[in-house]
Write a structure and sequence with these properties.
Layout lengths: L10 E5 L8 E6 L5 E3 L10 H5 L14 E4 L2 E4 L2 H19 L4 E5 L5 H14 L5 E2 L1 H5 L8 H4 L16 E5 L3 H4 L1 H12 L3 E5 L12 E3 L6 H20 L4 H10 L8 H5 L3 H13 L3 E6 L10 H11 L9 E5 L5 H6 L17 E5 L10 H5 L3 E6 L4 H5 L2 E4 L8 E4 L5 E4 L11 H11 L9 H12 L5 H8 L30 H14 L2 H4 L1
Parallel strand pairs: 6-7, 6-13, 8-9, 8-11, 9-10, 11-12, 13-14, 14-15
Antiparallel strand pairs: 1-2, 2-3, 4-5, 4-15, 16-17
Helix pairs in contact: 2-16, 3-16, 3-17, 8-11, 8-12
Length: 527
C-alpha cells in the first residue's frame, strides 16, 4: 500500500536535485503518468540538466521492489522480509566486530528530513557516528577552509546578487559545466553590464564573454590570489584597507612570504594583468566571487581563505549585494552541513575494520579505490531509487522514491530553502522516511515519526532553532545561513603552490585511461 494518497495534485512544487543550486521546479504529472515541467518553469531550457532531470523517474533501471540475496542471486521479496533481513545483516556484523565495524554512506542529495532520520538510525540503532557522503570521502573530508574566519565554510551572498553585481570574479570554477542555470544567470549579468574576471588555467566557455581572463598555471591559485590581494592593498593604501586588525596582521605576514616576489614567474602571469584587475576590484561597488568547493582541478592549499581576505579587504565579504558564492557537488550538501548530520568517512572507508556498510543514494562501486573494499564486506545494504553497481553487489536492496515522489526540504549552496512536494505516486510503495524509520526501529532505535513536518520540528529542536524556523523558510524560500561574523580565528593565509588530484588513481590505471583516450581521441583530450 502506498504511503501517499492516490489523489495527488497534478502539479506540485519541487526542486532539481542535479546540482547544488536546487532550482525550484513546478512539475506536472500527465495523464499517462509521466512528468514534465509546468509552464511556470519555462526558463529551465537554459539549463540542460534541469530541462530533462525530472525524467529520471522513468529510467528503465528504477528499482520497484525489495531484493534479498538467496542462493547467490538477488531475488524480489516483500517489504517485511527485506527489512528484517537488512537489520539482521547489519546487527550481526556489529555484534561480531563492534560498533566501529559498521558505517553509513549517505548521499548529500537526501532531504533534510531523511538525513536527520539517517543520523538517528546510526546513533541509536548502530551506535555509531560514522555517517558521511561519498563526495566528502573522495575529497578527504568536507571543506572547512573558512571555519576559522566565518565560523562555517558557507556562502556569504546569494545567486540573486549576481543580477546587480558590477564585477564577478570566477575563481577556479566552471559553472557552464557544473551549474548551467548559474551560467545562464551569469550571462544575463554580463549582458547587463557586469565585468566578468576569470581566474582559471583552462579556456572555459565563459571566457568568451569575460572582460578579464588570467590563466595562471594549475595549482598556483593561492599564490595568484595573494598577489592580487597585494595589488589591491597597494592601490587602497594602509588607510584604505577594511581588514579587521587580527586578519590584517595575518595578511601582512602572508605578503612578506619570499615566494611572492617570484609569483609572476611561478604562476605564469603578467603583473600588469593583476594590477588592472586590482584596479577594477577597487572601483567596483558590488563584487561577487564564485568558487567551486567540489572542483579539485584548480585548487591549491589555502586558496579560499586568501580569496575571503581579498573580499574582506574591499569590504565586500559580508556586505549586502556582495560576497562569496560557494558552489558544491550535491543538492542538499549545504543543508546537511548546517544541520551537522554527517561526518568524515574518508579514512574509515579504507580501513580493514570496516565490515558492514549501509549505503543510501550513493554508488561507491564507481570509485576505483573503494570497489575492492566493498567486495570484501560481510554486510552491504543499499537504499536507492536505481539499480546501481553497488546495489548489484548488495545483500539487501531497498527501493526508494525520487524527489518527484517525495515531500521534504533541500537547502541550496547559497542557503535558499527549497520545498519539495510529491507530484507522482511512489513507484516502490514506501516513502524514504517510512523506510528509514522502520529500519531504525528494527535496529533497536527509539521509534521515530516518519511525517516530514514532525521530523523538521525535531531537527529544529535539536539545533536550538525556533519551532517554526524551517516552516517559515519553506514557505517564503528564504535563506538559511549562519550569522555573518568575521571572526578572529587563525586561518592559514600562507600562499602555497600545488594542486589537489581529481582522483587518487593507481599509476597503472591512470596509464590505461590515458592510453584509451589517446586511441579514441586526440592528444588534447587525453591531456
Amino acid at each position: 500500500m502506498s504511503d501517499q494518497a492516490s489523489d495527488l495534485p497534478r502539479t506540485a512544487t519541487s526542486a532539481c536535485g542535479l546540482c547544488s543550486l536546487a532550482c525550484t521546479l513546478e512539475l506536472r504529472c500527465t495523464a499517462d503518468g509521466r512528468l514534465e515541467c509546468a509552464p511556470s518553469t519555462s526558463h529551465l531550457p537554459h539549463c540542460q540538466r534541469g530541462d530533462v532531470g525530472h525524467t529520471v523517474l522513468h529510467r528503465e533501471a528504477r528499482l520497484r521492489s525489495p531484493r534479498v540475496v538467496e542462493g547467490g542471486r538477488l531475488r524480489d521479496v516483500g517489504w517485511p522480509v527485506a527489512m528484517a533481513t537488512a537489520a539482521s545483516h547489519l546487527l550481526r556484523c556489529q555484534h561480531q566486530h563492534g560498533a566501529r565495524s559498521v558505517a553509513v554512506l549517505c548521499s548529500n542529495s537526501l532531504t533534510l528530513e531523511a538525513a536527520w532520520l539517517v543520523r538517528q538510525l546510526a546513533l541509536e540503532g548502530l551506535n555509531t557516528t560514522q555517517v558521511g557522503s561519498l563526495a566528502n570521502a573522495v575529497r578527504c573530508g568536507p571543506r572547512q577552509d573558512l571555519d576559522a574566519l566565518l565560523g562555517r565554510t558557507h556562502s556569504t551572498c546569494s545567486r540573486e546578487d549576481l543580477d546587480r553585481a558590477d564585477l564577478v570574479l570566477l575563481v577556479g570554477a566552471d559553472p557552464a559545466r557544473t551549474n548551467p542555470a548559474l551560467a545562464s544567470r551569469l550571462e544575463r549579468a554580463i549582458a547587463g553590464g557586469a565585468h566578468l574576471a576569470v581566474l582559471h588555467s583552462s579556456y572555459l566557455e565563459l571566457v568568451r564573454q569575460a572582460g578579464t581572463w588570467i590563466d595562471a598555471r594549475r595549482g598556483t591559485l593561492s599564490l595568484l590570489l595573494t598577489s592580487l590581494l597585494a595589488q589591491v592593498l597597494e592601490i587602497k593604501g594602509p588607510e584604505g584597507s577594511l581588514l579587521p586588525g587580527a586578519l590584517a596582521q595575518k595578511v601582512a605576514l602572508a605578503l612578506e612570504e619570499p615566494q611572492l616576489i617570484e609569483a609572476p614567474a611561478i604562476t605564469g602571469t603578467e603583473i600588469e594583468d593583476l594590477r588592472g584587475l586590482a584596479a577594477r576590484l577597487a572601483r567596483a561597488e558590488r563584487v561577487v566571487a564564485i568558487y567551486d568547493l567540489a572542483d579539485t582541478t584548480e585548487r591549491s592549499d589555502g586558496d579560499i581563505p586568501i580569496l575571503a581576505a581579498l573580499l574582506a579587504s574591499l569590504g565586500k565579504l559580508l556586505t549586502p549585494g556582495s560576497g562569496l558564492l560557494l558552489l558544491r557537488s550535491e543538492a542538499n550538501e549545504a543543508g546537511i552541513e548546517l544541520a551537522e548530520l554527517q561526518d568524515d568517512l574518508s579514512c574509515m572507508l579504507r580501513e580493514d575494520d570496516l565490515k558492514g556498510l549501509l549505503v543510501i543514494g550513493e554508488d561507491p562501486m564507481m570509485h576505483p579505490d573503494l570497489a575492492p573494499r566493498l567486495r570484501n564486506l560481510e554486510a552491504l545494504v543499499v537504499l536507492d531509487a536505481h539499480d546501481s553497481l553497488t546495489a548489484q553487489l548488495a545483500n539487501v536492496v531497498l527501493p526508494t522514491p525520487t524527489l518527484a515522489e517525495s515531500e521534504g526540504t533541500l537547502v541550496a549552496c547559497d542557503g535558499h530553502v527549497r520545498r519539495i512536494e510529491p507530484v507522482h505516486e511512489i513507484t516502490a510503495d514506501r516513502s524514504i522516511t517510512s523506510i528509514l524509520a522502520d529500519l531504525a526501529e528494527r535496529l533497536g532505535a527509539n521509534p521515530q515519526a516518519d511525517e516530514p513536518s514532525l521530523l523538521r520540528a525535531a531537527l529544529c529542536e535539536e539545533l536550538g532553532l525556533a519551532p517554526g524556523f524551517l516552516e517559515q523558510l519553506r514557505a517564503d524560500g528564504g535563506r538559511w545561513s549562519p550569522p555573518q561574523v568575521l571572526g578572529d580565528g587563525d586561518p592559514d593565509l600562507t600562499p602555497k603552490v600545488g594542486c589537489w588530484p581529481v582522483l587518487e588513481l593507481a599509476e597503472s590505471r591512470l596509464a590505461a585511461i590515458l592510453k584509451a583516450r589517446l586511441q579514441h581521441g586526440g592528444r588534447r583530450e587525453a591531456s
